[in-house]
Amino acid sequence: MRVKVVLLGLLIFAGFCEAQETAVSPESTAAAAEEAGTEIESGGTLPREFHEIGLGINLEDLKSVLEKNGLFDFRGDRDVSYLPSKTENLVETSGRSFVRRAFFLLREDALFIMGYMLNTALVDHYSIYTTFVKKYGEPVSLNPREAVWENEDTRVSIERPLTVKYIDKKIFNSIIGESKLSGAMELELRREFLDDF
Question: How far apart are CA 134 and CA 127, in angstroms?
Fold first, then answer.
């Protein structure tokens, strides 16, 4: 019991250190988990799915799963936003019980980001974090704002306030690449415009 109280105190202290950008090392977290008697199963495959909603599914399949899933209060097309870019859609819905709110971002009809804001009255940051460490090993990055697990295809993070986010890195990185290209084109057009004077 005392060890759990100390660990909880350390996590709360880490939250207060955010302004100083003080990071908690994965090694110290692993040592604390071992001291608390938590087994760590390193090397688990990162999840790309939560409650039958998986990265890569299309909008119609997403709507179908949300309508049937008891964790969400999905209201159909009222919860779907068609973004200015015709290739992107945002689905945002309220949740029930453990999930307070959820959002899903699709590009070219493929889900590439899903985020779940959790109900902190029913589940806490420490429980989610220790569950992830036990299943997927130590995070590759850990600081007071977020813990991140990633591989070539997937990035999963636990963020504050308590949000679990899944990202398809291939689609996300292609968007970042397009954004950089667009920015470079804008700079070139600006330079050409200024040269006209």
Answer: 11
CA angle centred on 35, ends 31 and 37, rounded to 5°: 115
Q: Per residue in 97-107, pLDDT tens?
A: 899 999 999 98
Q: How far apart are CA 74 and CA 53, in angstroms?
A: 13
Per residue in 132-169, pLDDT (tens digit) is: 999 999 999 999 999 999 998 899 999 998 999 999 98
- List, in sequence order, the alpha helices (H) in the chain: 2-16, 26-35, 59-68, 125-136, 169-195
Write phi, then psi, for 53 (nearest 5 degrees). -105, 110
Sign of CA dihedral 139, 31, 118, 96: positive
Record the pTM: 0.67
Tokens of 94: 């309220």
Contact 100, 117 (CB under 8 A): yes
- C-beta of residue 139 within 8 angstroms of C-beta of residue 147: yes
User: Contacts for 90-93 with beta carbons within 8 Å, 24 or more apart?
Assistant: 91/59, 91/62, 91/63, 91/66, 93/66
Can you state the angle between helices 2-16 and 26-35, rounded to 10 degrees?
A: 160
Q: Which helix (H) or strand (E) holds 92?
A: strand 88-94
Q: Which residue type occupies 26?
A: P
Cα end-to-end span (Å), the chain: 73
